[in-house]
Write a structure and sequence with these properties.
The chain is of the alpha/beta class. It folds into two domains: about 210 residues; about 280 residues, Carbon-nitrogen hydrolase (Nitrilase/N-carbamoyl-D-aminoacid amidohydrolase), CATH 3.60.110.10. Helix content is about 45%, strand content about 15%.
Length: about 525
């Protein structure tokens, strides 16, 4: 029965993740696990919590198998260990005091999430707070407590529901606490949503070429990537950003697509757009090695009358061993310095610590050996101050906060989710933007190779979006940040506090008599 309870809880957690509409299951998903963990041995508690996580991770992250089956297996197996650790520590306290264990659960869980998302192998993708993205009212409190503060709140809700169910007396007290804890973020959220919108905006065009992942890197098409996007940019002045049929690219070869889209548009056609954004690695090349990449983008920028942000590949001129997943801005004046992605996908973009241990660079796991960037760059283009977290970086609150503290007034995140097909992966990835927008109160534009491209305002609301596997562009206004939020100033204080409090709770529990 305990195994069934733990597995059922994992199913509930997975069902609470985007793109499903059963977000509310996050309020109950920990209850079966907490019930199953009662009166268990340390080994049994670890295995039950591991099973809980294994089921939820497998059901939510199976799409990783599309580009790398080994990567999916590794992710599910390794990530579940963190939850197993939670079960182990919870059991240590529970065997001495069940009420203390329940009171400790929000702290222990939030600390576990922090550790799981820390360092080179950090992976915060499955943090409980992320389930609440569609509930815009709830996530408004992220500007104070961050997304892990929302995780903390959700665990409190789960604990209070369990307490209400199992209590034999004073149920009214648990019920009252549940009502108050649930009402506070709703009240704050409604107040925040009724605040006036940001007064300053910039107009952006987010290009979604819908180039299939395999076609993008084919030798016959690599040079055509930028020409393809330049052709799309040339249609902006004619309002040519309507979404095209989802299967259009699949039915055409690259040459005919390029010829049809490019047409005769070589003349200047100025737009009212302040910035044009292309997806991750849109150049398809190391732009420093291919001068024609800069030429094509400069020409397109001049015709459109707007600077172009593009994902690219880059390398260190002084040390050719350092290669980067990067982004840069091109205008009719030329190219800017590149931003180098700072948080790399472990085992896919980098073998962790391979810069310190050279033998790791010889490992071939089907990924790349990029080096992490060192500077949270803020582009300043004619007074527009923005940063561009690349792909995976948007899952990390510390990444967007770092840009905000450095002066970015909005974000353009670029990505290529084409490897994951029509699965929950792209929806989960896009969902992170809501939290980064609210935490720092700035607008975010997302330019995705195959979708989902979107514009999100400073309150986490999706203003415009393009669906998966559609070619087109979004043209709209992104709100600018006016001042730093409490979260921007203080950081992930709920998670740090939980991490500090966890060993204190363990020590205190150690003084209690073991049951």
């Amino acid at each position: 029965m305990d195994l069934l309870f733990a597995a059922a809880g994992g199913v509930l957690l997975s069902a609470a993740q985007p793109p499903l509409v059963t977000v509310f299951l996050a309020y109950f998903c920990l209850v079966p696990l907490l019930v199953a963990l009662r009166n268990k041995s340390y080994r049994g508690a670890f295995l039950l919590a591991y099973l809980y996580a294994f089921v939820s991770n497998l059901l939510s992250l199976y799409w990783i198998a599309l580009p790398t089956f080994a990567g999916m297996v590794g992710a599910v197996v390794i990530l579940s260990l963190y939850n197993g650790l939670f079960g182990l520590v919870f059991s240590f306290i529970e065997r001495r005091s069940f009420p203390l264990a329940l009171a400790s659960a929000p702290i222990l869980w939030t600390a576990m999430e922090f550790i799981r998302g820390f360092g080179r192998i950090g992976f915060p993708w499955m943090d409980l707070g992320y389930t609440q993205g569609p509930y815009v009212v709830i996530i408004q409190m992220a500007d104070i407590i961050g997304h892990r503060g929302i995780s903390f709140w959700l665990v409190v809700i789960n604990v209070l529901i369990l307490t209400l169910v199992i209590s034999r007396r004073r149920k009214w007290l648990a019920g009252l606490a549940l009502l108050v804890i649930a009402a506070l973020p709703i009240g704050y959220g409604l107040w925040r949503l009724n605040q006036p919108p940001a007064q300053e905006t910039v107009t952006v065009a987010l290009m979604q070429g819908n180039i299939p992942a395999k076609m993008k890197w084919e030798g016959s098409f690599r040079r055509k990537n930028i020409q393809y996007y330049a052709a799309m940019i040339d249609t902006l002045a004619d309002n040519g950003w309507q979404v095209e049929d989802e299967d259009e690219i699949a039915r055409n070869d690259s040459a005919s697509l390029l010829q049809r889209d490019r047409g005769p548009t070589k003349q200047s056609h100025q737009t009212d757009i302040d910035l044009i954004a292309l997806p991750e690695t849109a150049t398809g090349h190391y732009h420093k090695k291919k001068s024609w990449v800069i030429y094509e983008l400069t020409a397109a920028s001049k015709r459109a009358g707007a600077p172009i942000l593009s994902g690219t590949l880059d390398y260190d001129l002084d040390n050719r061993q350092n290669y980067y997943n990067a982004a840069f801005v091109v205008s009719e004046k030329g190219a800017t310095e590149s931003y180098h992605k700072m948080i790399l996908v472990p085992m896919s973009e980098q073998i962790p610590w391979d810069e310190k241990f050279s033998f790791l660079r010889k490992l071939d796991l089907g990924g790349s050996h990029f080096s992490p960037g060192k500077t949270a760059m803020v582009f300043d283009i004619e007074g527009m101050k923005f940063s561009t977290p690349i792909c995976y970086e948007i899952a990390f609150a510390r990444s967007a906060r770092r840009f905000a503290k450095n002066g970015a007034r909005f974000l353009i995140t670029i990505t290529n989710d084409g490897w994951f097909g029509v699965t929950p992966g792209p929806y989960q990835h896009a969902n992170f933007c809501r939290f980064r927008a609210v935490e720092n109160r700035f607008g975010i534009g997302r330019a995705a190779q195959t979708g989902i491209s979107l514009i999100i305002d400073e309150k986490g609301r999706i203003i415009q979006s393009l669906p998966l596997n559609a070619k087109g562009a979004i043209v709209g206004d992104i709100p600018l940040k006016n001042r730093d939020t409490f979260f921007t100033k203080a950081g992930d204080w709920v998670a740090y506090g939980s991490l500090f409090a966890s060993p204190i709770l363990i020590i205190l529990a150690g003084f209690l008599k073991k049951i």
